[in-house]
């Protein structure tokens, strides 16, 4: 892997609030490398959700450029950008956002089905991924029949089943106790971090900061820290 | 993705059945009301349909329908018989009368006098007895509406009636299409009818005509009108006149139209509300799908599939409900002969499609407006 997995240059994002324009991100320049577990850390309102949304191609920046594995994603047409996300990015949402009326295997298979794969073949591959995450025996259960941790694993399976090059996690441990949170992080390191894959985790859970390879701290829309550990004053 | 869309919908039974109920209820209301409306309108032509052998009806120029007729002098019959192309022409009288049953009840009836010799003017089929009974003295044949209304517990055959102070004996039951007002009808010979019905100088209501071979009904109509100065209508035209009379002179089209419109509005309201709730409850999932990389086109197809499934089941249930209604009431003479014209389910289908297109579009707008980034908020 020669260049960075993600490269942002001068990324600025404004939001309108009535008559006012609020600048949430102020010209962010950063590179995210593949093979690392990168944490994006900051208080509520610091701009980390906005930055992660821009980095994975679901929110347009007001200014600046974003390259993901060498592709300037906001230079793509709308359809091409949607296709790019489908092929290259896996999402793990804080609330999991599983479809309640289909079983765990079908939930995990959604990206493959969206790519056009036959449903039964997609399910087979999803079950294999669930087995890798040690919940293969829960494949036929509906989300409401699973514990929070199991739902989290189904969401991880959904994010990884199509072997994306970028995995984005939003507060993956927010709803878990400390031990479960660390187990999920161990799992993510095991399955989501690879030489050719980047993994970014948005979090403000200080119980897991020690598990990061790199921590980016965002304050008031600017990166104020970039290192292996959290700064002393946090 | 269509499979996922269907599972999303059926996995929420309350909303799924709510949507199906909304469509089924609308379809039932629209189909059932239109069916009753059309069949009621056709009752305006029952007097014509009951006389299957007449090609042309001849009447006074002011007469409009079988029930709104001005009597002609008996010489009209001879005039019509003198027109070239007339194979046969027979007299036909229709008049109102009152009967007193043996229990003393009073009932308004229509007396129809048919040709003495040929019995042309009688309904084609009999429920009980034979048309030959009319050759016996004071004989009348009652229709099945009269049987149900006046003799609900026993056969009317042999029953004596006081018909305008005359003695009449029921000797048969005709299988007739009821009139618009479901009036009891008594059929008798023309000569008997003249006795039963209080008379003025002119008593002949219609002349029923059969056309000669090689002539169309319309050509014969034109000839009769030209040569006699009377009004002549083909069977089809006169049936249509009866229907038009009801449309023009009653509030029925407006009332049924209001009910059909209400069916549509209720459908839009129930389905629209339920669909919106369903979409709102699943907006996070739709947002997640959009973030993952599902295109707006696929989302549109997903919502269309959900609407299509609901429409198919709801519409089917609604039409089945109408069929069930018609079947359940088929034994009641009021609903005798009711059928569902093929155009009505088609109209309901168009209405259901409109309801689903409108509500689906409104629901879809919310999904399409949802930014994928909202899943991170």
Automatic annotation (TrEMBL), chain A:
- Ranges in a coiled coil: none
Which molecular-function annotations from GO does this UniProt entry contain?
ATP binding
Enumerate the spans annotated as ABC transporter domain.
6-233
Q: Which CDD domains match?
A: ABC_MJ0796_LolCDE_FtsE (cd03255)
Would you say which domain of life the source belongs to?
A: Bacteria
Q: Which UniProt keywords apply?
A: ATP-binding, Nucleotide-binding, Transport
Tagged with keyword Transport: yes
Query: Gene3D superfamilies, per this entry?
Result: P-loop containing nucleotide triphosphate hydrolases
The record's SMART domains line, in alphabetical order, gives: AAA
Q: Which Pfam families match?
A: ABC_tran
What PANTHER family does the record point to? Answer: ABC TRANSPORTER (PTHR24220:SF376), IMPORT ATP-BINDING PROTEIN (PTHR24220)
Q: What is the protein named?
A: ABC transporter ATP-binding protein
> Which species is listed as the source?
Qipengyuania polymorpha
TrEMBL record, chain B:
Ranges for the MacB-like periplasmic core domain? 18-226
Q: Where are the transmembrane segments?
A: 16-41, 256-279, 309-330, 342-364
Topology of the protein relative to the lipid bilayer: Multi-pass membrane protein
Q: Does the keyword Heme apply?
A: no
Compartment(s) where it occurs, according to its Swiss-Prot or TrEMBL record: Cell membrane
Outline the extent of the ABC3 transporter permease C-terminal domain.
259-372
A Pfam family the protein falls into: MacB_PCD
Record keywords: Cell membrane, Membrane, Transmembrane, Transmembrane helix, Transport
Major location (coarse): membrane
Protein name in UniProt: ABC transporter permease
Q: Which taxonomic lineage does the organism of this UniProt entry have?
A: Bacteria, Pseudomonadati, Pseudomonadota, Alphaproteobacteria, Sphingomonadales
């Amino acid at each position: 892997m020669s260049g960075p997995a993600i490269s942002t240059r001068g990324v600025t994002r404004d939001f309108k609030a009535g008559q006012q324009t609020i600048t949430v991100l102020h010209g962010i320049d950063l590179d995210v490398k593949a093979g690392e577990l990168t944490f994006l850390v900051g208080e509520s309102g610091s701009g980390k959700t906005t930055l992660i949304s821009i980095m994975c191609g679901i929110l347009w920046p007001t200014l600046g450029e974003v390259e993901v594995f060498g592709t300037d994603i906001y230079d793509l047409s709308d359809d091409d950008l949607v296709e790019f996300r489908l092929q290259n990015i896996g999402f793990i949402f804080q609330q999991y956002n599983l479809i309640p009326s289909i079983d765990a295997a079908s939930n995990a298979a959604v990206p493959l089905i969206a790519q056009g794969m036959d449903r039964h073949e997609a399910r087979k591959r999803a079950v294999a991924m669930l087995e890798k995450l040690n919940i293969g025996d829960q494949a036929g259960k509906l989300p409401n029949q699973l514990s929070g941790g199991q739902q989290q694993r189904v969401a991880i399976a959904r994010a990884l089943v199509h072997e994306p090059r970028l995995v984005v996690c939003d507060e993956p441990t927010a709803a878990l106790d400390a031990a479960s949170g660390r187990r999920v992080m161990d799992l993510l390191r095991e399955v989501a971090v690879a030489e050719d894959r980047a993994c970014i985790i948005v979090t403000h859970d200080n119980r897991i900061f020690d598990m990061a390879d790199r921590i980016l701290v965002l304050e008031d829309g600017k990166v104020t820290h970039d290192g292996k550990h959290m700064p002393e004053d946090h | 993705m269509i499979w996922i869309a269907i599972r999303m919908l059926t996995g929420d039974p309350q909303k799924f059945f709510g949507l199906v109920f909304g469509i089924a209820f609308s379809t039932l209301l629209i189909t059932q009301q239109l069916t009753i409306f059309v069949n009621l309108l056709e009752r305006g032509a029952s007097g014509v349909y009951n006389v299957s052998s007449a090609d042309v009806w001849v009447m006074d120029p002011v007469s409009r329908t079988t029930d709104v007729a001005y009597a002609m002098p008996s010489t009209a019959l001879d005039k019509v018989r003198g027109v070239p192309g007339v194979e046969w022409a027979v007299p036909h009288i229709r008049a109102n009368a009152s009967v007193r049953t043996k229990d003393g009840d009073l009932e308004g009836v229509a007396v129809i006098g048919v040709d003495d010799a040929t019995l042309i003017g009688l309904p084609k089929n009999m429920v009980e007895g034979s048309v030959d009974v009319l050759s016996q003295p004071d004989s009348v044949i009652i229709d099945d509406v009269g049987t149900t209304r006046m003799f609900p517990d026993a056969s009317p055959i042999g029953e004596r009636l006081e018909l305008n102070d005359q003695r009449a004996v029921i000797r048969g039951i005709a299988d007739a299409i009821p009139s618009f007002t479901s009036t009891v009808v008594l059929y008798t010979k023309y000569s008997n009818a003249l006795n039963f019905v209080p008379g003025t100088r002119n008593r002949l209501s219609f002349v029923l005509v059969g056309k000669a071979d090689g002539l169309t009904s319309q050509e014969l109509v034109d000839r009769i009108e030209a040569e006699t100065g009377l009004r002549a209508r083909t069977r089809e035209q006169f049936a249509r006149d009866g229907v038009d009379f009801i449309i023009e002179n009653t509030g029925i089209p407006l009332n049924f139209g209001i009910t059909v419109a209400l069916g549509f509005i209720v459908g839009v309201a129930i389905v629209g509300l339920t669909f919106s709730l369903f979409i709102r409850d699943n907006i996070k999932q739709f947002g997640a799908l959009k973030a993952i990389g599902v295109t707006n086109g696929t989302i549109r197809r997903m919502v269309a599939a959900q609407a299509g499934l609901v429409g198919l089941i709801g519409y089917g249930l609604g039409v089945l409900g109408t069929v069930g209604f018609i079947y359940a009431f088929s034994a009641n003479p009021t609903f005798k002969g009711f059928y569902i014209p093929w155009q009505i389910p088609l109209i309901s289908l168009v209405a259901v499609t409109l309801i689903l297109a409108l509500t689906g579009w409104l629901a879809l707008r919310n999904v399409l407006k949802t930014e994928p980034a909202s899943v991170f908020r």
